[in-house]
Amino acid sequence: MFVTQNSQPSPLPPTQDIFVAQNSGGSARSKSQMINSTAIASQLSVNAPEFYPLGYDSASADYGDGYDNAPVFPYSNLAEYVQDFLNHLTEQPGTFEMEITQFTEILNSWVITEETLQDLVELLYRQATALPNFSYMGARLCNYLSHHLTINPSTGNFRQLLLKRCQTEYEKRDHAAKGDETARKRFHAFILFLGELYLNLEIKGAKGQIARAEVLQGALWDLLTALFSNPVDSNLICAVKLLKLTGSVLEDTWKEKGKTNMDEIIQRMENVVLDANCSRDVKQMLLKLVELRSSNWGRVHAASSYSEATPENDPNYFMNEPTFYTSDGVPFTAADPDYQEKYQELLDREDLFPEFEENGTDLSAGGDPYFDDDEMDPEIEEAFEKFCLESERKRKQ
User: Fold this and answer.
1) How far is the C-alpha of 31 from the C-alpha of 87, rounded, in Å?
2) Tens of pLDDT along 176-228?
């Protein structure tokens, strides 16, 4: 079954809607009822009249700073507006927090049918898988909409339709992993987007607690299995990217359940290094990933919460502290047991120097008593002359 992470997961039953069965709270739907992404009959016609959301004031509408106060509307249809917003986020991801509320309000005023909701899901999915740099932003956007879109038709809400869309790609995993370069590229984009969804999509439990979509964890295991079962370079590179992205979270979750899935993955990687005919560079990538996992994915240990962190229980407590130097040139930080004494010595030493303007001149004496451009210490002068002579000799050789 899909939801059981075994080393040899059994094939998915052809009529089981696994993505929705665990997330909708309802019964599984037959495969014939699932969305066919290649045959969507879009209701967002390019010939539709100009789109104005409910309550829109054409005389005062501004998009915001991200678009230099260009008017939001009119757009010829909702699809054009959504695509324009997605392109905007792709170019300026930092505007997400400022503009997501207005974007969602407009969607809630217009996405009021099952058909438009399905088309919205398809637009978001295509953008998140067509542009590698948008997979993270797409996952964040999908998470926000899953909690704030108000439409909830009988076919499923936004999150349920999104997971159905992902399932259609998941079911093609074995064929896609063996496909041509174009098919594999599309497959890899889906895998990395699903990894971002696993990290960002939040599910509310019965008691209001927030958790990750556990069904996606099982999907990632099966997708990794498909990649390692067909160890060509591009599949292995995708597996490395996915594990760098999700490996620490996956392993922590599996360990909590007493599972050793990550050990099995690492063993498969080591077998690939020994037996597969992949390139030397890819084998090196796999070995580096094995090394990363052996160092607990680069983590020292589970970090203490901010309120509980102390110099004794958190080795990273002082990691952002500045480094100072004593009069002898010895570095010290706040982690040094003699920090207070050395820091006070540094302050006392600085008090010996007069104030300087930005150009380095002494405010009180009209000059610099410590550095005179016309004079040089005899030892420094001798050393400098030797350096110049030696440099000239080497240049002539």
Assistant:
1) 32
2) 999 999 999 999 999 999 999 999 999 887 777 888 888 899 999 999 999 99
Express each pLDDT in 260-278 by its tens digit.
999 999 999 999 998 878 8
**Nearest in space to 240 (alpha carbons), one of 198, 194, 207, 288:** 288
Residue 61 in contact with residue 73, Cβ under 8 Å?
A: yes
Q: Helix, strand or coil for residue 211?
A: strand
Q: How far is CA 196 from the centre of its chain?
A: 7
The sign one gets for the Cα dihedral 313, 316, 320, 323 is: positive
Q: Is 204 left (phi over 0), alpha (psi -120 to 50) or beta?
A: beta
Are the beta carbons of 22 and 215 closer than 8 angstroms? yes
Q: How far apart are CA 235 and CA 229, in angstroms?
A: 9
In the predicted model, what is the mean pLDDT of residues 287-306? 77
Q: How far apart are CA 177 and CA 171, in angstroms?
A: 11
Q: Containing H/E element for 247? A: helix 233-256
Hey, what are 347's tokens? 């302050």
CB atoms within 10 A of CB 132: 13
Query: Which is nearest to 119 in space by CA: 46, 193, 44?
Result: 44
Q: What is the DSSP string of 292-325?
A: HHHTTTT-SSPPPPTTT--TTT-TTTTTTSPPEE
Non-local CB neighbours of 331 within 8 Å, separated by 6+ positions: 323, 324, 325
pLDDT in tens, 92-130: 999 999 999 999 999 999 899 999 999 999 999 999 999
Neighbours of 371 (CB within 10 A): 9
What are the structure tokens assigned to 304, written together?
Answer: 């203490």
| Number of DSSP helices (H) and strands (E) in the chain, helices first | 14, 4
Residue in the structure block whose two tokens are 């909409």? 145
- Taking the C-alpha atoms of residue 316 and residue 115, their distance in angstroms, rounded to an integer, is 51
Sign of CA dihedral 192, 271, 297, 249: positive
Mean pLDDT estimate for the chain = 74
Calpha distance 176→30 (Å, rounded)? 23
The predicted pLDDT at position 311 comes to 54
In the chain, the amino acid numbered 117 is L
**pLDDT for res 360:** 44
Let me know: does 234 contact 184? Beta carbons within 8 Å.
yes
